[in-house]
Structures are given as C-alpha cells and as structure tokens.
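Annotated sample (chain length 365).
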Amino acid sequence: MISKDPVADNTDVYAFVAPDAPDTVTLIANYQGFQEPGGGPNYFEFGEDVLYEINVDNDGDAIPNVTYEFRFSTTTVDPNTFLYATGPIDSVDDEDWNRPQTYTVTKVANGSRTEVASGLRTAPSNVGPRSTPDYPSLAQGAIHPLDADGQVFAGQREEGFYVDIASIFDLGGLRPFNQAHAIPLPEEDGIDTFAGYNVQSIALQVPKSEVVSDDPVIGVWATASRFQTQVLQADGSGSMNSGPFVQVSRLGNPLVNEVVIPLGLKDAFNSLEPVNDAATLTGAAAPPYSTEGDIPLVQDPILGFYIEQLYGIETPPAPRDDLVSIFLTGIPGVNMPETVQPAEMLRLNTSVEPTPFDEQDRLGL
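Output written by the structure step:
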C-alpha cells in the first residue's frame, strides 16, 4: 500500500480562490504526512525519483486539461558530516543548508509541455532555533514568482487537516459520543491527531485564465508516480531507474481512499485515472458513463453498515445518490460541471466570490 512509500504518499489536496487574490486559483498538494518535527538527522525531503503532479479538468470529462509537474533534485554540500545544517540557515540559498533541494515546474496543456520554472529552492525542514532561527522568513523566501502573475512554494508546512484519526480508526470511535458506542468509553473532547506534525506541501497559485475554460467549475486531483523499473546498486550508490512513470498515489476528496475504498482495491484505485472511475465503480466497460448505474462503493458504502452496528443509528438506505454528487459529479447548482463524467476529484466553482479572511469559519459555515 502507498503508506509504505511515504515520499509518494499524497495526504491531502486543496483548491480555492483566495480572498487576497480573487483572480487566481490556489492549488495545494500535500505528501508525506505525520512528520515529527524533531525527526533528524536526515529530516524530510521530496523524492528525487518521484513525479509529483497537480491535475485540472476544466470541461467535466474526467481527463486533465492542465497538469503541473514537479521534479526535485537534491545536493549534498558536505558529504563528510552527518548534519542537515552546518550552521544557521538564514535563507534558502544559505550554504549552511547541507541538503538543499531544487525543483522544476512543467505545465502540460493541450498536448504541449512548457517548462515554467527551474532551479527553484524548496524550504528546508524546520530543524530548530539554532539551525533555522527565523523559519517564517525562511519559508517566505521559498515562495517563487512565476510568469503570468503566478507563484509557487514547495517545502515543509504544519499539517492543517484537523481530524481525530486515532479515535475514528479505533472501531469508528467519536470521543464526544463514546458512551453511545457499542464498546462504551468515557466521553472526551475530540483530539486533533495531526497537531504538532508537518507535511511536505506543493502550493501553486495561478491566474484563473490558466486553468478555467468556459465552465467556471474545475476538477482537481494530485498524483505521484514512480519509474516502472528500479534496480538497486550492489555498492549502495543508489538505484537505476528506467521505463515510463507509473502512478502509485492519487487523491482528490479527503478520506476517499482511506474510508470509501476497501483494502483490496486501494492500490488499484491509486493507479486509476479518474476517467476510469465510473467503469471501475459501475462495471460499465466504456463511455458514455452514467450516474444512473449501480455504484456500490459510493451508493452503498460499508461505513453505513458500521455506523448502524456500532452506534445503533439507522443510516439512509442505498442507493445513496447524494454521495454520488459529493464524490463523483459535484452538487448540482454548486460545483457540478455543465457536462460531467462521474469521477472522484475535488471540484471547485471558481465563480463563487471568496469570503474575506476575517469572516471565514473554519467549519466552512
């Protein structure tokens, strides 16, 4: 499973129109979750042998119209020391950063590949007050301008996803409702399991005109791919990689691969292109796909069975067409494209005015 390959493990995807840049779209893909800040001496990096991609479908056909590719390269400045930082790192170009990473951004659109930027420095890991004494300024220095009024960042960030995973995956526990569970425990407040951990983030902000077509609704998902063949060198010098890239990780909506997709299909789902989702989930062999068919994993999720068994709460009966809208097509009149092939991705209506920062509710209400 992809959890055994952390640097390629896509943990979350975000897409939004920022209040301070309403003519742009911000796309964020996170990888390598649960980074303990003190996890030295090597700390955390993007994979040099991984192709990271953020994909955008702007016409509802579940095929990417625009893809941004990210490839990383690592340098060891002084191989004779074990230190990640040989002194205070005051900027992303500081020679005291002993394992700097650079990356290239390539845009793929309409069959054409364009290198948008290269040689960009990532932000280093936040080692501590001696090695990274002013980390906010250091991270700010890793925000790089792009052509057409865009900007990009890659590096370590605090995990922003709030969920009590420790309780939820312990037989569906919800701490405030512990007494209602089939195996009751004392009630407690929920705990943010991710608090205090970091992730590797790729954040891209581009003008709407770069990713939006006639329909203001776009679909967004991120992937990670590895070379098809890897041969390890007997002398420990690394590996030889060859063949095409093979997709090993994929994410759109949160918790789909974790909860909706069963164990036996997780690797298969991670390898799928969204255009093949409907065929996989409905049994349809070829387009045109339809949401009218039986989609058991979405319309009759096993989570409903567990809720009934563990809490004695009756869940809505199958078929759950509301979940088809949430996970596969978007909600009509909100974030559903004018024409849509059902596919799992995060859908954003870019025509909705963003809420000012000081008026936002973290629950989205």
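Annotation: The longest helix spans residues 302-311.
Annotation: Residues 283-291 have pLDDT under 50 and may be disordered.
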